[in-house]
Amino acid sequence: MKKFSLSKKVSLLAIIMISFMACSPEDGTDGTNGTNGTNGTNGTDGTDGLNSLITTLIEQPGGNCTNGGFKIEVGIDLNDNGVLEVSEVDSSEFLCNADATGLSYLSYVSLLNQTGTNDPQSSVLENTLELNIVWTRESQGKYVGALDSTIDIGKTVIFYTTPTTHTGVRGEIVGNNQVRIELQNGINAFADDFTNLSFELREYE
């Protein structure tokens, strides 16, 4: 038997390893990605939710409010007719006037009516402020009242009610000779045509 020196053994082992590496196969190229699958069909739209309504009513002096005030009714418009009916009222709150003993004020009270694209017309019930208000229809459901004399904004408050044909009213004193009201019938839906909207300016002395 032939004997190999250590150096020859190392050389022989290196040759074997090189031969093995030379015979190893190379990795192939990646295949092409497959096409995406078809999107599924859209689900069915859900049903529209119901609107909530708020109604403001004048509360006469009595058991609920000694000095009178307002009754706020809240509920869901179950039949979707834009009117908060008695059967739809979920809750109510009273905003009562403070005891006015010792406080004196002058007031302008009227009932407003409006149809179509006409300007609102007012029937004055009380006018110790001795002023006149001319109403103009600015756009659908939005009206501006011009006063023929000035009021003290810091001492004047505004009161109004919500007609049964509407879901809400917003009123504000714009300046010392101008007021503004907006009527809605639904969410962000301004609407004309109302009757007997109670409007009051009260200036305290």
Automatic annotation (TrEMBL):
The lineage of its organism: Bacteria, Pseudomonadati, Bacteroidota, Flavobacteriia, Flavobacteriales. The keyword Signal applies. InterPro entries: DUF7151. Residues 27-46 are annotated as: Disordered. Residues 30-46 have a biased composition (Low complexity). It comes from Flagellimonas aquimarina. Keywords: Signal. This is DUF7151 domain-containing protein. Residues 1-24 form the signal peptide. Residues 51-96 form the DUF7151 domain.
